[in-house]
Every structure is written in C-alpha cells, then in structure tokens.
Amino acid sequence: MAYVSNSASVSSVMLKVLFALLPATAIYQLYFGPAILVSIVLASVTAIGAEAAMLRLRKLPIKPFLLDGSALVTAWLLALSMPPLAPWWLIVIATLFAIVVAKHLYGGLGNNLFNPAMVGYAVMLISFPAHMTQWPVVDTLAHAHLSLSGTLRFIFGGELPAGMKLDALTLATPLDTLRTQLLLGRPASEITPMPVFGYVGGKGAELIALAYLAGGVYLLQQRIITWHIPVAFLATLALLAFGFHAYDAARYAAPWFHLATGGALLGAFFIATDPVTGATTPKGKLIFGAAIGALIYLIRTWGGYPDGVAFAVLILNMCVPLIDAYTQPRVFGHVKDQDKP
Amino acid sequence: MRKLFDFHGGVHPAQHKAESATLPIATAPLPTRLIVPMHQHIGNRAKPIVSVGERVLKGQMIGQADGYISCAVHAPTSGTVSAIEMATVPHPSGLPDLCIRIEPDGEEQWVERTPLDYTTMNPSELRNRLRDLGLAGMGGAVFPSHAKLNPGRRANVPTLILNGAECEPWITCDDLLMRERADQIVAGGKIMQHMLGASEVLIGIEDNKPEAIQAMRAACAGTDFEVIVAPTKYPSGGAKQLTKILTGKEPPAGGRSTEIGVQVFNVATVYTLARAVLHGEPVISRVITVTGNVERPHNFEALIGTPVRELVALAGTPRADTQGYIMGGPMMGFNLPSDQAPLIKATNCLIATSPKLFPAPPPALPCIRCTLCAQACPVDLQPQELYWFSRAKEFGKAQEYDLFDCIECGCCDYVCPSNIPLVQYYRFAKSEIWAREREKDKADVARDRHEFRDYRIEREKKERADKLAAKTQGPKTPAPGQPAADSKQAAIQAAIDRAKLKRAGVEPKNVADLPPEKLQEIREIEARRAQLKQAMEKPSDTL
Amino acid sequence: MLTALLAMAGLTLFLGLVLGFAAIKFKVEESPLVQKIDAILPQTQCGQCGFPGCKPYATAIAAGEADINQCPPGGEEGIQRLSELLGVEPKPLNAEHGVTKPKSVAVIDENICIGCTLCIQACPVDAILGAAKHMHTVIEAECTGCELCIPPCPVDCISMKPLQEDITTWKWKYPMYAIKHF
Known about the structure:
The structure holds three protein chains of three kinds.
Chain A: H1 10-32, H2 35-57, H3 62-67, H4 70-81, H5 88-104, H6 116-127, H7 148-157, H8 166-169, H9 174-183, H10 188-191, H11 205-221, H12 228-247, H13 255-260, H14 264-271, H15 282-302, H16 309-326
Helix pairs in contact in A: 1-4, 1-11, 2-4, 2-5, 4-5, 4-6, 5-6, 6-16, 11-14, 12-14, 12-15, 15-16
Chain B: H1 18-21, E1 26-27, E2 34-37, E3 47-48, E4 55-56, E5 61-64, E6 73-74, E7 79-88, E8 96-104, H2 123-132, H3 145-148, E9 159-164, H4 173-180, H5 182-196, E10 200-206, H6 210-220, E11 225-230, H7 239-247, E12 262-266, H8 267-279, E13 285-292, E14 298-303, H9 308-313, E15 324-327, E16 334-335, E17 349-353, H10 372-376, H11 383-391, H12 395-400, H13 411-415, H14 422-472, H15 483-505, H16 516-537
Parallel strand pairs in B: 1-14, 9-10, 9-12, 10-11, 13-17
Antiparallel strand pairs in B: 2-8, 3-5, 4-7, 5-6, 7-8, 13-14, 15-16, 15-17
Chain C: H1 2-25, H2 33-40, H3 54-62, H4 75-86, E1 104-108, H5 118-122, E2 128-129, E3 137-138, E4 158-162
Antiparallel strand pairs in C: 1-4, 2-3
Helix pairs in contact in C: 2-3
C-alpha cells in the first residue's frame, strides 16, 4: 500500500472537465444569447439540490460527495445538450431524472450503468419532443433579440415581449434542416447554402464545436481522458460519412459537416468519455467509441431523430460489461490470453 | 548504445533520495542486544541449533536451514544466547515469531571463516554452502539465493542481470553500495556468472544515480560486464520490469525468469555473495537507509538483529512528531508494528514518518473507473476490475483477471483520484485465496485419510471373517443343530486369543532401562489408572 | 395453411435434430453431484449433520434427503456455496446441528491420558497416535477438529485448542473505509 500519492482527486478531475467546457460555453452565450447561462444555472442548482437530498436519503456523508463535482459536470453537460430556450421545468425534470434515477437509484457515483446526462436528455426527447426543438437561432440570423430579463421571462413564464414571435427566435438546427429537406427530395448541394449553415457546419455552432475540440485537447493533455474513445468515435463517423458522401454527394452530407454539427464533438470528448459508464480497456475504448460513431451516423442518416449522440451512447453503455470482458489486455508475462472469459 | 525497452505504465513519485545519499555508509556500533528472527527469508523457518546460555561466536550458525527453500541464520556478533522466544518481528501482522536473543560480549570474536574455491567446487555443494551461509535476496524479497543460482534443467542461464535500479523513493542503500563497493559487486557478479554459466552480465541502474553508474563502470573496466543506464521510472527495479527494459523479454507469468534464460539479482545480494564466497562471511549485516523524519538521514552498515529503535537513534535524536517507521520504501513498504522489532535481511530502508511527510490520505470515494490505475499498472492489469472483485469477495473472478500477476507495486494506489487503498484489497484477496487453498488441501487430506480408515476397517473386518471362516471349517465340523452358537463362541475365543497376542506384542519395551524414579512414576500412574477403572465400573450417579 | 403447418413441423423437426445432435456431440462429462457436494464440505467428518461423515451427508443432500444447512464447520460460507451449486436459496445454519466454532485441534493432556485407545478408535482420520497403555498424542496437522474423540475419553484428558494465527497463516484484513460505500 503506497504511502504517497500524486494528490489527484475526483474533484480535481471534475473541475478540469468543467474548465474544459468554459470556452464552448462562452462562445455559445456570445452567439446564441444568454439563455444557455440560465440553463446551466438552473441545471446546476437542481443537480446540487437533488444530489444533496439523495445523499441524505441514502445516509451518505454529503460534503465529500457534493465536493466531488460529478453532479455539476452532469448538470453542465445536460444543459449544453438541451435546447436553452425550453421552459424551465424541462431542464429541471431532465436534471432530476439524471441525478435521482440514472445516478443514485443505480448506486450513485461510480455505479451507474448509464450516462446520467444522456438519460435525462433522452427521456425529455421522448416525453416532450416539441419542446426539445426550441433551439435559439444564431444572433446574426435572428429577427429579434432577447435581453437577459426577456430570456428569464420567457424561460420561466413563457411570455415573449409584445409583438415578438417564437419563430423569430428559434430555427431548425442544421441537422434537422438537412434531414427534412433531403426527405423533400432536394439535393444536399442545394440545402447547404441555406442561411443556417456555416462554413462546414451550423452557423455559429461550428465555432462552439471548435471550442469543444479545444477543450477535448486540454483534457487529453491533462490525461483526464485517453485518446481512444474520441479518436475512434470521430474517425468512424467521418469514415462512414466520407464513404457515403463519395458514393452520392447529393444524398449524403460531407464528413466535415457530420463532425462539426450536432453533438458530435461534445459527445466525443465529454460524453462518451465519461469514465463511469464507458469501456475501460484500451481495445474496449476503441470499440466503444467506434460503435458510438457508427450508430450516430446510422441514426442521423436513416433514423427517426436528427441527431443520435444520446441514443448511441446509451446503447453502448449497455454493452460496456461485455466489451470490457472480451477486451482484457494481455497481462505482462502471459503468452496468449487464452484464459480469458 | 544498447536498445532499451519500455514496460507499460509506471509512475514518477517524488524521489527524496538526496536526503540520505550525501553521506558515506557509516558502520553502526554494536547494539546492546540482538534479536535474530529465524524466519527472515521466503520458505521454511530456520531451526534453532543453539540453546539458551550458550556462547556463540560472530558468524556462527544459530539457525539451520529447513528444507531446500530455506536458509541459515547466524549470530551477528559473539556473545551469549539469552533467550529463544517468540518476539516482535518486522511483519505487517505485528504477530510475534521465533527469535534468538543474543547479549553481545563486545569481543566480536569471529568463527573460523574459510573462503570457498568456487571454480573447483561441485556446483551443488557450492549452493548448499551458500544456503548455510544464509544468502537470500537483499532487495526485499529475501528469496534464498542458492535456489536462484541453480540453472536447473538448462545447461546455463545466458543472461545475468545485476539490479541496481533502486527505483523506490527515499531508498539509497544500493546507490551507496555501488558507489563505495563496486569492486566487490563485480567480484560477486563473476561468481554468479560462473555458477549460472551466463554469457552476458548486464548491470541495470536508473539514470538518477550518476555516481553509482560511474563507479560501476570503472569497476567493470576490463570485464565483459555491461553497465546499462535505464530511465528513471518506478517500478523499473522490479525484477520482471528490469528484465523487460534490458532484454525486451517478459518472464512468464507464474514461472521463473530462467525459463527465458535470464536471472536477476539485487546488487546488495551480489555484494553479500562476494563476502560469503571470497571471505567466508555469512550474512550477518547489511547496508540500510535510515531516512525520513530524522535529523541526519544516513546509510548504515548494521548487524542483522539490531533493534530498530537503536538504529534510528544513530540518525539523531528521534523527533517528537515521528509517528512510526516504514520498513522498505513508501510504495511497497509497511508500517513496523513496533520500534522494538529488529533489522532483518530484507530491511533495506527505514523511513521515520510524520504527518507532515506522509499525510493521511483523504477519505476514499467510490471508484469512477477512470482507468488511471490501468494506465499506471506495470503488468497491464485492470486494477479497477480487480478492485471490484476483491471488494465483493469474488475471488474466483479476481483470479480469472490475473490477480496473482499483481506485484503490489502501489502504482495504482499512487494515481487513484478516489484514494482507494487498492493494493490492500489485492493483498486481502490474495491472502484469502491462499487460506482457502490451505483449507482445501487440508480437507483433501482429511478426505483421503477418512476413506483410508473406512477401507482399513472394512479390510480388518473381512480379514477377521476370513480367519474365522478358516477356523470354523477346520477339522472340527460344527455339530448340526447349533452351528450359529458355536461359531459365535469360536469368534469370541479367536478375539480373546488375538487380544492376548496383541497385548504381548505391545508390551511396553521402553521401560527397560529407565531410572528408578521414572519407574516409580509409572507405578503411580498405573495405580491411578486402576483407581479410575474401579471408579468407572462402580455405578454412581454423582459422576 | 397446410404449407404453414408443414413448414412449422419441418422447422421443429430440424431444430430438434440439431439440439439432439448438440446434446450428444458437446456433452460435458461432469463429476457426479455427490462428489461436487463432497468437495464443498469441510471434511471434518464430525457427524454433526446427523450422518456418519461428509460423504454420507453429501449423498443425502444429492438424494434430497438432507438439507444444506446442517454442517456447522462449513458455516455460512459452506451453505452459500452449496446453495450456489444446487441452485437453491441459502438459509441460516440449523442450530439443532450445532454452531460454527473457530477452527481448533484436539490436544491430549499427556499427564492424564491412561492409554485406553478409545479416542484412537473414534478419530475419523486416524490423527491420533498411540498404543494400548501408552500415552496418546494428536497429530496437529491432520486433526480436523471434529471433537469426536472427546466423549469417549474416560478421563476427560482431551481438550480443543483454537488454532492460533502466526505469520505464515496471517491474512490481510478487509480494508476499512472512512466513507460508507453503499
């Protein structure tokens, strides 16, 4: 038993994750208005309250577990995944579901099978599909702007300033637009010049994606995550997109578009890399990441939802014990791992 | 430049080597008393061969090796055996073990020492002599060296590695030994090379010991020995890890490194071997680092059996905030149960601990499966899975995930952000599995013995019946009408005859030449027995 | 309709054949149940279960004539393992058969022993040495601690000595946590 330690702690790990999310959050707020900040605060407060209540009910010490920061990370990731202009109760219920059901009913920190943030998101997506599309439009395209007080009034009271319509504030996401337009039979080359698209992804959103990438690189550098899951995830997604794009560019979007839109980068660096619910062996991480990337492409292209990060992650969460059991690395001094399960 | 290999994982803890490495090795003065444990090595405990009150000479064998995997123990100085008793030994359990206590007479009178002519000696005899000189691995594992110097079925072991990596923080005894006594180490290496028939001798030293590297290089001049500098990374000093670094080969799991033609010895073992073979000196002292919360961290050459309290006092008056002493390094060592425990062959380092130097770890949190431990594990295990199984006492699963390949190096403990005492869980699981194995072996023996007993009873019954049948079918045929009664009678008669015969056979033969007082005692016991017999036969309800 | 029925029947037949073939081809030779149960029992041969030894008790369990909770030396862990083997619910040890005691060995007080050989006859594993009218002694390594030698002794010279832990049998303890886990 070692008497020394490198003084890493769960809270330092979680704090670094939050830190890595900061640039993306800042850009989000800059381009899409203050609603995201309201979401994050709402989710964080709910998460901490729910966490404390659950710890109390389970007769666990509150302070060390609250300080570990895992509830805050869940809240932030959830807030960043949800449409920020949705009514307040949507994010609150999602957070409650994530913390109470997905985390604590499964045994709390370290024991949950499913990624709590994604459980919260998926449950809301299935239960309140209409509210889950209230995505704000990027500032440069908006016909109207909401101030912080206006945003608060809208989120908590559902009231918009006189004469303003919700349509002026929200717009279908690029992935959604692409999907509907493709269904209408328009070729991709006609769809992508539409105003909601940017250089490679969604206007504004592609900058957020870039910030996620920067945050992910920071996490890699800090050794909070390993390269396996993000690389396998993004490579598979890009490879599939490239293959189909090359086959028929009119019907299948370009690989860079797939990488830069939706939850691809957030998912690759922050969600699929959740240690508790992800695969743990190096080979297992590669399989886990690749399978998520492939599922996302399948769901986006042929599934019933515009994006598929949450479902892909949740489905792969289920497979983690199996993946881990079959990908145990060769132990030092073992010739072949024929004695593995 | 030789190509070096890397092993998976490893960590870089703060080294703290400068503290104790600045001063030369000092010879510790004779302590007031010596407590020499009989079980200082892996294998069977040595058997005491002296008696209380006996005068012993320095270097005299006081404990004899018991079996092949065992080695002898010697008197560290001349003096009188004052006790053979169970005393505190340096063991994490804190349980006492058999020790011989010697009161030194201060004369340091040596037993006759004869150097061994290893080049002409029969190899098997040479190994037996090494066992009788008490040679065991001085790096901390204390495996009897003679067993490792047996090439076995192979004609030779081509690669001999001298391990001077000394990767644990705080410890500097091998560093100092290499700096000051490089010639002796090289001499010992030559003996080992001869014994193993090795064609190459590699000396692995971490790059944080430039003086030792220089000294060893100078001593190796003119030999075919090669000093190889390895990058500093814990645990490169693990025998298997060093083998990988220097040769690229991995010793087979659960097997010996000789199977891949490699044998590894710690430089301190090589040094003691040289002393033993070239000077006839048994293992009665060793170099030990005394460091941590002491005034003058220092390396001492001290006698085996020196109480820890007396040894650490040599490094300055103990400080008030010293909580205890770690034996070994901070990664793999353990807290000594008491400072009364003696120095043994395995003690390479004593670290005085204080809350400031070694703060208590914060409370443990649940495992978040971050796999930092798996990334640090030098044997490529999945510590998070082993922890899960060990905690749930699923020992079968833990074994399936190669628990027994764990070298307990502590890298996982070191990196765990949840501060889980992982190695403690593995040790717990391992010792539970061993205990079960012992119990199972014992149950198997009991089953066999019980089955044999049943068989024996059955056989005796059958023999009796056969005998009886032979008798009854003799010349006298039973009278018709009452054959049953007759055979019964015959059986009883046969039993009486047998009993008589038996009694005659077992008449005590050991009373023939006893002194009269013993005979008197026996008569008294017989009388008591007769009384008891009477008492038993007397029906009584007061019993 | 007829085709459907025929198809189903054909499919059933085919799958049945496959299963039957697999059952023969991939049959795993298993050691008989009695032996598996016997392997779990502690082999003290103490008879506290009501049977004259571990093997008879194992036979009785296999035949469904005895319950799995009649072995005090095996303790809770033994019951647990039996329940896993047999696929039944574990239950607490039946107190009628005694309680689990720490592992012990019999010790004969050699000053009192009269050499009657009764204990030798009682010992199920022949772990007592001695001859008539000679002092007896227990081979500690082979004693199972069954206590069967105690009742026959006419002079009560046998006692049970709990096995002491020494540094070779000492076990690392389960780590204690500062925080409760569950």
